[in-house]
Amino acid sequence: MARVLVTRPEPGASATAKRLRALGHEAIVLPLSEIRPLDPDLPEPAAIDAVAATSANALRHLNPERAGSLLEKPCFTVGGRTGDAAQRAGFSDVRSSDADAAALARLVAAELPQQSRVLYLCGRVRRPEFEAGLDTAGIRCLPVEIYDTTFTQPDAALQSLAAAPPDIVLVYSVKTAEVLRDMMSPPEPASALANARFFCLSEAVARALGTLVEGRTYWNKEPDEQALFALLSEA
Question: How far does the signal peptide extend, from start to end residue (predicted)?
Fold first, then answer.
């Protein structure tokens, strides 16, 4: 069994660690980011044709009282975990893409007419692919930032792992990958990660780690945690 470093924010980090331990792995919880809910105002349901989310965090922190009858709209999501979060948030019509944000934009464009209005529940820190894809397809995207993400660089904590370094690092986002890349860069690279393998949520996440870990990055085509655990089972 492996020593696995979990870098995702809470509460997901502890849930992942529990799952790892149940499989016999040693889980090391070291979140590199923190999620802060924003609780913004939401548009009137009559002004919206559908809802979309590319992160489960957006749905986890959605205020159900503010959402109201928006929950009756179709909700487009990326991956099973985000789809499950949409159902828990109260959406009954959930339509998921098993690929990435760009693929989700294509799914929305295939199912909605041009000029449809899509409420995008998102984070303040996000990538542009989904919004760009909708714009290209002639779909009106209305982003509403549900949460913010702050990132840390716990160098001291990583150095403390040098005596018993992780075998595998689970990496869930491009921004977290960039934080790890910076930690591993000169002049003071994190020695605890020198030989670790990096299991990434997607190819984009793996690319963000840079060339310092070339040959040590792995990903599956499905951008969800189940795919990460499938990689673990093959390790």
Answer: none
3-class SS of residue 179: helix
Q: How many residues does the structure list for the chain?
A: 235
Query: 159 versus 19: which is more confidently predicted?
Result: 19
The tens digit of pLDDT for each residue in 39-96 reads 999 999 999 999 999 999 999 999 999 999 999 999 999 988 899 999 999 999 999 9
Tokens 């030989």, located at residue:
195
d(CA 231, CA 223): 12
Segment holding 155, helix H or strand E? helix 155-160
Averaged pLDDT of the chain: 92
Q: What pLDDT score was predicted for residue 228? A: 92
Residue 156 pLDDT grade (very low, low, confident, very high; cuts 50, 70, 90): low
In a 10 Å sphere around its CB, with 0-12 CB exposed, 13-18 middle and 19+ buried, how is residue 46 labelled?
exposed
What the chain holds in terms of domains, given with CATH numbers, is 3-32+152-234 (3.40.50.10090), 36-149 (3.40.50.10090)
Question: Phi/psi at 9 (nearest 5 deg)?
Answer: -75, 165
CB contact at 8 A, 162 and 53: no
Contacts of residue 209, defined as CB under 8 A and 6 or more positions apart, other chains included, come to 171, 177, 180, 181, 198, 200, 217
DSSP strands (E only) in 98-219: 117-123, 140-151, 168-171, 197-200, 217-219
Q: Give just the sign of the alpha carbon dihedral 37, 141, 172, 149.
A: negative
30-43 b/e with 16+ CB inside 10 Å = b?
bbbbebeeeeeebe
